[in-house]
Protein 1
Amino acid sequence: MMKPMITSLTLTLTIMSAGTAFAVDKDFTQINSKIDAMVAKSFPAGEGQDLSRLKQDETQKKCSVRANKPTATEAAEIMARERASIKYPESGNLMGDWKKGEKLVKSGFGMRIGVIEPDPVAKQKGGNGGNCYACHAISPKEVAAGNIGNSLVGYGKTRGTSAEIIQYTYDKIYNAQAFMPCSNMPRFGHNGIITAQQVADITAFLLSPESPVNQ
Ligand code: HEC
């Protein structure tokens, strides 16, 4: 979150002072790689450290270089690539078990970078999950919710449970960047943070008429 903000400010300042497209690209790339190096240095390797996420894939590189504003052609390329990564549960049923979904959205153990918990690795009991409340209000029962993402309270009640909505909700959770090229929402299924079945469980939590989200 910080990085795009810094780089977008830098880009603006560089455009103001430099004038030519070549100068902008060169300065921007230099500053960008300095930031990458600083970020990488702040996560030293060691027990419990997962540093694999410091390496950007093609989509992330493009979003960084464009300060999250890709051209229309680039946006279409990103969305096509991200869409192609979406996989479905073996059952083919995209509406899983909403009770399991409720636990998964609450779990704060979505993919983390660096030391995962202060406890030694062997003692960690978090399991995986989506940490959705970090960014979204979802169940009206949960008062501690972030607002980087829109409120999902009453999500199924307002949108219904047509096949299209189920499909959209599943796909969006699996890979948010199939719909918004440089979304701030993590690509949960794509990055293996949660499994395809768990995406279906969360889809049911958002859509099921029995779920507390829709009371
Ligand atoms: C780091 C913040 C962040 C996290 C964590 C996050 N989201 Fe999002 N989410 C967003 C943002 C920002 C948007 C709006 C931009 C977009 O559509 O990509 C969004 C959009 C959505 C949408 C589309 C909403 C609509 O109106 O169509 C759904 C559904 C959604 N999120 C579900 C989830 C679920 C379920 C989780 C947990 C598994 C989750 N999000 C975790 C940031 C987040």
Protein 2
Amino acid sequence: MKHKIVIAIYMRLSQDDGDSDRESNSIVNQRHFLYSYVEKHFENYDLLEFQDDGYTGANFLRPGISELLEKVKNGKVDCIIVKDLSRFSRDYIEIGAYLEQIFPFAGVRFIAVNDGYDSDRFKGNVAGMDTSFKNLLNDLYCKDISVKVKSALKMKKESGIYANGSCTFGYRKDPEDRHKLLIDEEEADIVRRIFQMTLDGISSHKIAQIFNAEGVRTPIEYKMERGIATMTPKGKRFEWSGSTICQMLRNVTYAGDIVYDKYETPEVSGKSRLKPRSEWKVFRDHHEAIIDRDTFEYIQKSRGVKKAVKHKRHPLIGKMECGYCHKSLKIEHTKNPYFFCGNKYVTQYKGCVERVNVQFLEEYLLFRLQEEAERQADIHSICMKVKNRIEQELELLYERKNQTEEKLKDLQTAQTEIYEEYVFKKRNKDDYIEEKRELKKQEECYMDLSDDLEKRIKTLQEMLSESGTDVYEYLQNRSLTELTQEVADRFVKRIVVYDEWNIEVEWNFSEKLPEEVREYQLAFL
Ligand SMILES: [Zn+2]
């Protein structure tokens, strides 16, 4: 007997549906439409219903769809049917990921009735479909695979299909089959030259220097020319660097191989890290080589693996930049360690930072932080005074607000009373109208007052939650004797160095007295 299939219908309605669509897209109509479709086209099934009323299709943060996708994940659904694709999602990239990767992978059939789309029948053939939808599908099927879809991607990689988002310098993707790599001759010539120069004994740094002097375009510039990257150079222009050359010399893609699965992402930290080389997966002779294998391997051996002395990463690395070319400063671990701009060797820029003593810089920063702590201690004591004032004022305001509300209630009662007097003829009409007008006027005054009090209370409450004394609080029970990673990350945003006497520090705290506190201080103290 054939297994009973599980069909899930999904319905969605949101504010982003135009008014004219709202009627035809109402949940009731969608349900009716889908039920009759299922009845006509299927027999022997269980039907599940999922819906999101009042949710946008721009993302997947919808309870109904989450429940449905959870079922898909657990293999509890065989077929999903929607009225049209936009009910499922309006994010075309996500739609692509689901149609192209997730549903096929989970073995789920997907039908968008009005779009004439049925994954069982659709094999990249768009004949007979609605034009705009055709364009979308064409787009999806030509587009690079979304990196979000890790599992499907991994499967492809394991079967040796080239699935990297962008390809290595020197290659381009085959327009006929995006899983294939073809040599790009113009770029490949540069790669060959790099390997040849290395064979001739020229160092990576020197190669970068020569390329920059000759004006050889960098990989990123080639990419930008082809419209597959946009980037602005950190300095005046893009430059070759020794490390770019080194990376290229080590890249096995040039010998025809593909390496994948180099990184792993532990669930806990979520940050990807490099796996040991022995765990990498390699596909040999996957595509045409630019560098023959013997040459490639000779260069790997002759370059050897540099045994770098392990230095602890300095807390300021990555935060410091050269005031001239804006590249990050590097550190030289000599007896007197110093920061310098590594770019200067490559570009020969005259203005780049030559040497800033590490210890000097650390002491300078600690001194500035100490100063800041003192300044913030002053602010803190002002803040405490201001806070007291605010609290006192708040108390008064709450009291006045209560009184105002009482008064408003009284006025309401008074209005009811004069109305009754009028109805029972204890008061004549003119008298009533006059009195009522008077009471209304008073009521409006008190309502305005109530609004004003409300606003003032809100402002004051916000002031109370303002702190602005971060450094002071941090140093309350610590002493500042060392520039640790924690201190650096907490307080230092960026340091621009021109030379030892010309250093600009961008802090993570405001160097100004909080505006509200200042105003309040002027008004009260
Ligand atoms: Zn520089």
Protein 3
Amino acid sequence: MAETRRNRPVSRRRLLATGAALAAGTAGLALTGCGGDDEAEGAGPVAWGYEGAGAPARWASLDPQFYNCGAGRHQSPIDLTGYAEGPGEALAFDYGGGAPEAIDYDGLFMHVRYAPGNLFIAGEVVNEVLQAHLHTPSEHLVDGDAFPVELHVVHQHPDGPGAGLWGYTVVGVLFESGEPDPVVQAFIDGVPPRGAEAAAGPAFDLAALVPADPAHYRYDGSTTTPPCVEPVDWYVLRERRTVSPEQVDRLRELHGGVNARPVQPLGDRRIVLARGR
Ligand SMILES: [Zn+2]
């Protein structure tokens, strides 16, 4: 899947770029990282990544489809600071449904993909799990502090592709340094060779991620990987897990170093630290 990150020739459809035109053409595509376009359509010279010519500051220049990476005003990740406290939406994690279907590895990310049946319900909105992946270090900061690892569970929002919007919902989980984490270890143990896909074992149990306390930071953002599409409803859990230094070292090897986009301007957005119940 490494070639899927490359700059591609631009079709007329792609020049329509954002909004409904983009969404209509992306239904059913797999996601890379936080939601990038996995469509293989030929290859150009520069792959997006996290260093050198493909580094985040250059993403918008790599492909017209990545316009939002430079021009978007509600981009992710951000520093979660200056938040107001409030009740927010009640959260329900119904992660006992479909088993993981597969794990793939493209040299930047391992994605565990799920069959339908795992739901994250925020207020009245029912979101279906698509995939989960890890970033090293964390993409979001909390009051200026970064963390060794951040896990993202990417969900299809009901207003998503096919309904006129991209519409993703992402739950973020931050990991502090400490004891090893069984979910992170399942990623490490299950990774297939680069560019390959393997059946994901039962060890990838989403239910293990359900927090005891649903308090979370809520804001409107984007995917943190190209094409940096908005809107994405973000729910970064306040409750943290731990990851061991050995696990972090192994993830950095697998990710080829850093796979985290720097924080983006908050702009006119508000962040709410919500109770979630
Ligand atoms: Zn992500």
